[in-house]
What does this fold into?
Amino acid sequence: MAAGTRLLTPAPGSAWALRRPGEPIAIDAGTFALATLPTSPFWARRYIVQFLGSCRGIGAGTADTAELLVSELVTNAVRFASAPAPTHRYSEHAGMIWLSVRHFVEDLLIEVYDSDASPPVLTETAEDAENGRGLLLVDALSKEWSYFFPPSGGKVVYCIIEIPMRYRLSDKHPGPCGTGYGTGRGQMAQDDN
It folds into this structure.
């Protein structure tokens, strides 16, 4: 779903908005702060793999898709964040990126904040282009994606990845991430996407 077809508001269950009645409740959630450095996509992938590896109800295909989309969104944040946000003492010249992931019964919500207030643009790229396909992948592999501008400035780009029915946890007994009950991976021989 193209971002232009939605109002520019946080997704239901967003880490950037107060929960409203009737919105989903996250089974588990995590946030990871990164600097706008070339190594940030690597560390974001490491984080999402570790986070989803400790979650029940996430199949390997969903985790692989999440890893790819996190990498693309964080890469775009590093590339296009023009004005640095308030700097962290360990990084004098880098802005900040915030990665948020929220695991719901039916889907994953991935949000990436950066200090650049320019909206993301979904564009067609030439076949031989070396970059420019990030949002095309996000558009193709997510159930929905969009962006919004938080009151503090910058932007948040988010995507929602649907969890296949056979991996979904009951919303009555979700068993949050890190409980030691296993991930549910490897229980089925076929891919979950």
About this structure: The radius of gyration is 17 Å.
